[in-house]
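Table S2 (text version). Query chain:
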Amino acid sequence: MEDSDQKTAIDHLRQVKTYVLRAGRMTEAQKRDYVIHAARWCLPFAERILNFTDVFENTAPVTMEIGFGMGRATAIIAAENPDKNYIGVEVHRAGVGRLLGEIERRGLTNLRIIEYDALEVLSSMIPNESLSGFHVFFPDPWPKKRHHKRRLVQRPRTDLFASKLAPGGYFYMATDWEPYGEEAYIELTATPTMESMYEGYAPRQTWRPETRFEVKGIEASREIYELMFRKKSLED
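Corresponding structure-token output:
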């Protein structure tokens, strides 16, 4: 349970957006898929706690991906793990439309989308200790110092993430921006209920598909940094 100071700090950071909504163009296919399929696969934002069993019609573990971009990796992971459920949260409609098309083409039934601010979704819709994992692949590094407050992975936001993880649940982040990777490692390590699953950065997780942002980072000769943390169990 958050104390009042922690809750106040989290509420303050919730007001600092970790993204900028850009007027990106949607292709005709993305527009069509959004219009046709959003009602079936998108969960509308609401200030009420979700019941995952009702949403997915099963009791399989649920993983949330924050900021899935165009959703290619999201769709592949869901397709390769039909025994697990996934919720992707994204604010850019073009990516939502693209992923909706992937859901239909691949016949996925274990993936839902919420088109909204992830921090608001976590605070208002996700039960405590309910998620088996978080995926955060190549979040905006906000490289300018005056924008560092917008970085997603920092305290006390990490306390919010930890509160939604079941004991033993994991937080997996990949970035091509070394200073952000270093900061995120420090912030997650400082989160009382979290611990790194490796000494330092994690090795490449072979089950994670390559993303478009990852390709751009590699083409720019940047290394990829991966972090794998887990929520401590009561016995730890």
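Notes on Table S2: The chain has a mean pLDDT of 91. The longest helix spans residues 28-41.
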